[in-house]
Amino acid sequence: MRIPHVENYPSKVQLSRISHVYFEHADLEKFSEFAHDFGFVEAERRGDVIYFRGYGRDPYCYVAKKSADGKPKFGGGAFVAASEEEFNKAAKIPGASPPKPLEGPGGGQVITFARPNGTFMHVIYGQEDRQVDTKHIPTETHDHQGPFNTPFEKPRLARQKGQFQRYHPGPALIHKVGHYGYVCKEFDAEFDFYTSNFNLVPSDVLYHPQIHDMDVLAFIRLDLGKEYSDHHTFFMQRAPPEVEQTYVHHTSYEISDFDTQLLGHEWLAKKGWRAVWGVGRHVLGSQIFDYWADPSGFKIEHYADGDVVNVDIKTRRDVAGPISVWGPELPKDFGDDLTKEQRQ
Ligand SMILES: [Fe+2]
């Protein structure tokens, strides 16, 4: 019930980042409406599939497909292999599908792992990146944003000549998919699959407040050695006994800053979408968070200002406690699967 010590070794498949996630929705048009309000950009539509992108290097970060049986489904996350050699290594892991062409803009190849618990994980390689100008952050809300003035330093005054903070209402534009995770019935077996086959290493592990030798949550990062990566790209929560089936807890997408977060929140509220929890500040990972429910009931998060860590930060283990420093009270159904109604 305790998570074993995990380290990355060159023999494991090295992944460099998360690229995209797969979903199926009963009403694709309704989801598309939500997606635009949430800050995605439609990259391409192919039949019953819409590829949504952010302004990052990935040609798309969210694949939305019309559900054939009308039930919402999560199809797992796709990770980019660090090299062709690593991709070929992934193909040799037991349970790997044969590599096949990756449909969608940018091309590439994909290997899929259909897990015994009905979830999926994908490894991709050879996809063509978008060209990104990292000097300029695209926005739907900021007319002008200079540096922040603090009590003792006024950098905006110093640079000035009409440098005011000016904004207007609009969606919080997405940069990329940052992380996702499961409430998992097969916690120990799945943890073993992800961490023994790939360079996935826990940044923080939390144990049950009453049962100290039972780990209940793992925030897992991609170990890139000395290079910094997001505090967590993936997470796993041990499902409480009443949960019948493993489900995705939420997927999360990066946005640029605090003003974008609040403007995006107001935009989604004004459009009548269902707020779940936020805006607040997380403890582990430090993200400024804001959770919403999409039309299928999947929880979906905007985050800004997340931590990055590297190999020098060892796995920490602590008791499970409050997950926010500030923000609204945690809703009672935050851990629940809100898609349940539509899956029955
Ligand atoms: Fe999150």
UniProtKB/TrEMBL annotation:
Domain of life: Eukaryota
MF annotations from Gene Ontology: metal ion binding; methylmalonyl-CoA epimerase activity
Originating species: Thyridium curvatum
Name the UniProt record assigns to this protein: VOC domain-containing protein
Any matching Pfam family: Glyoxalase
Aminoacyl-tRNA synthetase keyword on record: no
VOC domain segment(s): 176-305
Entry coiled-coil feature ranges: none
GO BP annotations listed: L-methylmalonyl-CoA metabolic process
Keywords: Metal-binding
One cellular component (GO) term of this entry: mitochondrion
Keyword Heme part of the UniProt annotation: no
PANTHER family: METHYLMALONYL-COA EPIMERASE, METHYLMALONYL-COA EPIMERASE, MITOCHONDRIAL
